[in-house]
Amino acid sequence: MTARVLLLGGTGDALAIARTLGPQHVYSLAGLGRVPADLACVVRVGGFGGAEGLARFLADEAVSLVFDATHPYAARISANAARACLAAQVPYWALRRAPWRAQAGDDWRMVSGWAGVVEAIAPFARPLFTLGREPLEHLNEVPEQQHWTVRCLEAHPGHARARIIDARGPFTAEGERALFTESRIDVVVSKNSGGAATEAKLAVARGMGLPVVMMQRPPLPDAQREFTSAQEVIGALDDYIKRSSNA
Known about the structure:
By secondary structure, the chain is of the alpha/beta class. The chain has seven helices and twelve strands. Helix 1 runs parallel beside helix 7 and helix 2 packs across helix 3.
């Protein structure tokens, strides 16, 4: 049997995994951010049409394993992938990156959605949003007493009461400290993404005594095998591909 892996990606960890895959495998991106041009595997951009569309793709393309390395907050994609794998009788593996944990000196305010974010930042004047694109949908709701700094992957024309920064990690403590100081940030708004690439903002917030409004992770479906690092995944996929090829 020839193994064919569908890697659902869009994160730095997923890209590291994709760089180890050969031309028979597929790396799938939702379409946000830059499309890598240095991969040996097939790169597919765009949705599948929900769980049903993904199940058809798995059958049509003879996919033997789906690996979910999407963002920890991509709950809909993960749910559709799990349902599609169940319908197509294809194994579903996933990278479940460990969340950050509050440390001594941290002032985290936990919220579960956008309404909670708005309520939590109400006392502050200059929040920094590191939630991706979601704040861009609310630029016309910026209160008069606030000025937002929004960091996301894609360029945006901006707004009279918001500064939009398109940047991709990893970010350094020095760079974060300079941004906080220049923009006079008084609260950081973050997803609990885990990983080292964007963790510096938390250390800088801790050192500067700034609160962090932390959005809780959504529930994700169980996988037949779960991993916590890209290196674990690379080893497991290599073993799977070799075993499948020798079967």
